[in-house]
Amino acid sequence: MSGKKIMLTVIALALIVVSLFAYGQKVLAYNVVIGGEVVGQLKDAEVLEEAIADFKSKKENEIGQVVNEAVNIELQRAQIDEKLLVKDVNELVEKKVVFTTKAFSLVVDGKPLFSMLHKEDLENLLKQYKAQFLTSVDKNAKVESLVFEENVRIVSDQVTLNSIVSMEEAKRKLFTMKEEPVIYEVEKGDSFWLIARENKTAVADLIRLNPELDPEKIWPGDKVVIKPGKPMLDVIATLKNTIIEDIPYETQYKKDSSMLSRDRKVINPGKNGEKEVQYLMVLKNGYQESLEVLNEKVLKEPVTRVVKVGTKKTISRGVRRNYGVVQGKRVSSNFGWRTHPITGRRSFHDGVDIAASYGNGAYAYSSGTVTFAGWNGGYGKVVYIDHGNGLQTRYAHLSKIYVRKGQQVSAGQKIGAVGSTGNSTGPHLHFEVRKNGTPQNPFNYI
Question: What's the predicted TM-score (pTM) here?
Answer without folding.
Answer: 0.65
